[in-house]
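Tokens as discussed.
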């Protein structure tokens, strides 16, 4: 078998630049802020940094709307500063992966400006332009070319008054979808990607990359989707998720961009709606598409019938069944990514853990242990290593995220109770992940000397990096030990995965085996002491504990009783 890829025994750290650290007092995080905090990442031990978008952008969706792929947004810095950062990251033995947002551009990108200028524009076909539904007047209710709902609420089509035609935007009206059917579009994207690789970047996290191929008929027709309850729209996802040409497009990208240098790079495709069967195809090295994908099943388990803003409690047995299936599915071929958090998800300690003062540290370290002991490459989202919690937002004015703001507007206009809508946003809104990183107990958590673009979490007096680094029992040091363990214990990286006690409602337990070495991972995902009837319990009694999240949990004689939120990794040979 070929040697395992370099990204199997490392951990990726995601930076959301806007909220990471501000170096010039304008209240917005920037490249200078990242440069100033590389020590923190080096101390944590991560091998790769993934930067959310820093390209030139009107910031309608905080940089996921790009108006120039080959420049840095002035709010973040300059290309010179970027080169300086890249060099500093490399000098510390780390790698840097860029976000690649090519399902759509900004409506202010010159490609779209030109495309919009006239139906005869040579770039008209670079985007999805369509006439109104047959027999209907442009702008009339329901005249959109398809019934699709935008992922950010409202219709997925926007009328261009000048031409009387609509353009497709799966996300905001300022994020028109590129037409990947057009080979010129693909060539332009490939050239841009090569430009960044030539500059020295080490790979890409590809935004909604499984949405670039749309199911379009030979005559250009796009199909309506089934109705979305409570809205006049339909769900178009069957027409744009893992579309007919997705594998062809990714293989072409690999040939045109990565071939010859892919062994040094990391590519990860963000893929809402991807199934494990499809993930096998996307990540099979022999097919040369991407190294791994971000799947969404485990972060959708607590969504209620009304979707993400209608949350329901997580059942641990569902989580085990889901993650276990992904472990099994990618056992022979392909590779898993592992994540609890990113800039789109609420904070895991508040969501699946317990962010009360009593349990915050133990529940955060319990969940971290579970995730990092699965087979795959773990991703840590900024602040997760500090046990940062969901925000404490009061009114709708505290929210900045376009998804949340649009949802509030549409839902309340449709008659929903504003207080109930707000409650949903507080649980699952993306701004929970976007409050400034808490560096210190000082003013604005040490994030900025100015006024932060979004309110700082008031708990920064307790939850902050200064305090965490000084405390050996902190969430930070636990993450550091987990990352180190991956480097020192090959069974963490390559061991086979076997789920134990799948029906237990509180205990998450599994083994990892590599040759003669076997690890047992045990976690009590609850605030009460529990017992577990473990197969082979006697054989594990008194075995070495490689890592635990409570003081003094080394080599217990009885492994079957777990304290609230306790997690342990046992080892035997
Ligand atoms: O997100 C894709 C996506 O579909 C969701 O995760 C999204 O964040 C939303 O919450 C669904 O309800 C990616 C980016 O990660 C996100 O930040 C961008 O807003 C989006 O694509 C558009 O580029
Ligand atoms: Ca700044």
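Sequence:
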């Amino acid at each position: 078998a070929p040697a395992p890829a370099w990204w199997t025994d490392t951990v990726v750290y995601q930076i959301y630049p806007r909220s990471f650290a501000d170096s010039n007092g304008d209240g917005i995080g920037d490249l200078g802020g990242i440069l100033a905090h590389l020590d923190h990442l080096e101390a944590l031990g991560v091998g790769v940094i993934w930067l959310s978008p820093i390209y030139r952008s009107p910031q309608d969706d905080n940089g996921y709307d790009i108006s120039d792929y080959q420049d840095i947004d002035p709010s973040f810095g300059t290309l010179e500063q970027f080169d300086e950062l890249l060099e500093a990251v490399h000098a510390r033995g780390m790698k840097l992966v860029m976000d690649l947002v090519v399902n759509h551009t900004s409506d202010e990108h010159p490609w779209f400006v030109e495309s919009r200028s006239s139906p005869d524009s040579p770039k008209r076909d670079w985007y999805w332009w369509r006439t109104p539904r047959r027999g209907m007047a442009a702008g009339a209710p329901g005249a959109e070319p398809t019934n699709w709902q935008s992922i950010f609420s409202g219709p997925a089509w926007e009328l261009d008054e000048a031409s009387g035609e609509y353009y497709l935007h799966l996300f905001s009206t300022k994020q028109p979808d590129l037409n990947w059917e057009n080979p010129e579009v693909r060539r332009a994207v490939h050239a841009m990607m090569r430009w960044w690789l030539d500059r020295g970047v080490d790979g890409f996290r590809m935004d909604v990359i499984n949405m670039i191929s749309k199911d379009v008929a030979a005559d250009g027709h796009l199909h309506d989707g089934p109705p979305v309850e409570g809205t006049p729209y339909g769900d178009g996802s069957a027409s744009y998720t893992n579309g007919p040409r997705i594998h062809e497009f990714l293989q072409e990208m690999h040939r045109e961009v990565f071939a010859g240098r892919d062994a040094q790079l990391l590519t990860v495709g963000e893929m809402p709606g991807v199934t494990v069967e499809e993930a096998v195809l996307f990540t099979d090295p022999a097919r040369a598409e991407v190294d791994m994908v971000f799947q969404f099943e485990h972060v959708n388990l607590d969504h209620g019938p009304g979707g993400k803003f209608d949350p329901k409690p997580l059942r641990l047995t569902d989580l085990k069944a889901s993650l276990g299936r992904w472990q099994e599915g990618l056992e022979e071929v392909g590779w898993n990514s592992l994540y609890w958090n990113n800039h789109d998800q609420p904070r895991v300690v508040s969501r699946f853990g317990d962010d009360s003062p009593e349990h915050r540290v133990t529940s955060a370290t319990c969940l971290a242990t579970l995730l990092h002991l699965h087979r795959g490459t773990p991703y840590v989202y900024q602040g997760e290593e500090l046990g940062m919690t969901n925000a404490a937002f009061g009114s709708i004015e505290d929210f900045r995220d376009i998804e949340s703001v649009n949802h509030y507007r549409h839902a309340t206009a449709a008659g929903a109770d504003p207080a109930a809508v707000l409650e949903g946003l507080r649980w699952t809104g993306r701004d929970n992940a976007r409050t400034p990183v808490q560096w210190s107990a000082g003013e604005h958590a040490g994030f900025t000397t100015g006024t932060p673009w979004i309110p700082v979490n008031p708990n920064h007096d307790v939850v902050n990096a200064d305090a965490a680094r000084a405390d050996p029992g902190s969430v930070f040091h636990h993450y550091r030990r987990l990352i180190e363990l991956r480097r020192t214990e090959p069974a963490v990286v390559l061991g086979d995965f076997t789920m134990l006690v799948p029906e237990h409602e509180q205990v998450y337990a599994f083994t990892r085996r590599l040759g003669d070495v076997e690890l047992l991972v045990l976690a009590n995902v609850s605030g009460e002491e529990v017992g577990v009837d473990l197969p082979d319990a006697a054989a594990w009694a008194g075995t070495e504990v490689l890592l635990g999240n409570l003081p003094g949990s080394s080599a217990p004689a009885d492994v079957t009783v777990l304290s609230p939120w306790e997690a342990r990794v046992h080892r035997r040979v």
